[in-house]
Each structure stands twice: as structure tokens, then as C-alpha cells.
Amino acid sequence: MDFTRDRDRDRDRDGTGRRRDDRRDDRGRDDRRDDRGRDDRRGAPRGDRERDGRGGAPRPSSGGARGASARGGAKGGPRTPVGGRGGSRAGGPVRGGRPQPPSRPREYEAQIEERNRARHAEQRPRPPKTFGEPEGERLQKVLARAGLGSRRACEELIDQRRVEVNGRVVTEQGLRIDPEKDEVRVDGLTVATQSYLFFALNKPAGVVSTMEDPDGRQCLGDYVTNRETRLFHVGRLDTETEGIILLTNHGELAHRLTHPRYGVRKTYLAAIQGPIPRDLGKQLKNGVPLEDGYARADSFRVVENTGKNYLVEVSLHEGRKHIVRRMLAEVGFPVDRLVRTGFGPIGLGDQKSGWLRRLTNTEVGMLMREVEL
Fold first, then answer.
1. Annotated catalytic residue, options 238, 292, 336, 350
2. Residues pairing with 18 in the sheet
3. Confidence (pTM)
4. Given pLDDT bands bounded at 50, 70 and 90, which one contains residue 250?
């Protein structure tokens, strides 16, 4: 009996002296440990997964091209080029997954640049005028530059037959003109197609009607100091007289506006002390004898009356010195304050004292019509 019990005990033990139940327990613990290690490697980075369990160096991949294909994902997806992430088959850098051609040497780049410069610096034969740009400038472009609107709006003016060139109505697009020689009219008004400037200044009292004053007094030139083009005033106003005065660089227009032949009307508002007789206007229209001859007013009317204070409007086409002050003083009503409110078709309006404004194309056209330009 004792012998049989000893034989069964020896059968349950292996060569190491451990029982079979102990070996099963050890094998189960090893399996669970391998499962935990596999789970850890599944979530770890690729470089860590390639390391062995003892923390050694990365193990070389035996997959080769098959591993690269597997990393490319599904069929048709992006694939990492053979040779690693930073290189390509041609040897150049990879940008956006596409291999780039190798860079050229700097000496070769310099030669290409010099060759291009030499080619563009060559004097090419100019074609004859027959094949070049036509002479002149398109009419709609000239009108747009003159401020009549956009090119499209100027083309509509031409289609409506509202534009004349040298007295002939333009009926089709594409006409080329010489802005310095041809006369252009829109709705019967001349358009200043040249580089002329036209301004209206509301001159304050105490300003001298000159562009420069040797005595250092305030003058008209102080209001146009920022202009590159030289301007000159059209006519004059007394130092103490306020109101509108025109400035331009158009010599012919300025000359005609001040010439007695064209008789451009000027309108003034005068503050005087009353009472005034009913026939004062008739006296001024019939003519007042002055030292340099008779002076006549074109129109006269009372604008405002407050007690003895009268505000009267006088219009005349003469331009002699102090003409309005002298006429009213001659009939017994010296002027306390004088303002010029109109020069031909250009009115002062609500323009503030000391302000300079540019005339519109319509106003310029009316001025030119006034003096037959």
C-alpha cells in the first residue's frame, strides 16, 4: 500500500520536482501576463511596440514593403514612399506627399537670370505707325477725365447724341480726338478737356486781391498755396469788399471774363442807411456821373429793410475800381458793407467765407458760353 502511494506522488511531479497543479497555475499566470503586455503594446507608439520586452533597441522590421503597404491604409489611400518619410525616389524633398525635383545649383540659376536680362534688354525693332496705336484719345475717356461720369456713362451720352466735336454731333462710339485742339461740347456747353483748373473763393474782408503781397498782408495766394499749377485771379475786389472771386489757369477765359466787350454781369449786396427814395433804382439805371465818366446799373432792388437799415442788390457789367461804392456814395448813400454774390452765371450761394471750391463742369461750360468760347 505504501509503495502504491509513493508511485502516484512521483507521477504527479515533473523533472523539476514541482507538482502538475503548480505548473498549471504558473501557465495561467504567464498567459494573463502576455495578454496584458499585448494590450499595452496596441495603444503604445509604434517605436515602443518595436522594442523588446527588456527595453532594448528597436527591432528591425521584417515586413519590409508589406509593412509600408499596410501602413498606406485602404486601397487608393496615401502611401508612404519607399525609402522613408523624408526622401523620395528622385532624392528631393517630399512636400504634400509628392516628390520634388532636385534643386539647381546657384551658378546655374545666376546664368539663367543673366540670360533673361540680356534677352529683355535687346532693342527690338519698332513697328511702323500703320500697325501701332491710332493717334488721339478716345472721346469717352476724355469726357470721363473731365468729370462727366464714368466711361460707361459717357458712352451713353454719345449714344444719346448729346456730344459735339468741332460743331458736329457724334453718332458712334470709338471716335478719337486731340484734347488740346478739338472742341468738345455736351448739351451745348463746352467741356474743359485740357488740364485747366477753375475755382471760386469767397474772399473775406481784409484780404488783398493779389496772389503775392510784398508788404506781407493776407492775399489770395494764401488760399491756394498747395496747388502745383500757378493760378491767377479773374478781376479784383476791394480789400474791404467780400464775396466771390474766380481763380484759374485758363488765360483766355480769364481775359474774356474781364474784357468790357463781353460785358459779364456782376451782382452785389450793399448795406446802406435809409430812408431811400423810390426813384433810387431809376437814378442808378439812368447813369451816375463819376470822375471817370458815367456809370450805369443794370438792375436794382431792395432785398431787406429793417428800420433805417437797407440791404439792396445792384447788378452791373462794368468793372471799374470801387464802382458800386462810388455810385451809391454819389447819390447820397455810402456803403457800410459790400458783398459780391455773383460773377456771371456763377453764384456765391451758401459758400462760407474763406472757403475755396472747384467749379463743376456745368459751371465751367456756362462761363465759356458767356464769353463765346
1. 238
2. none
3. 0.56
4. confident
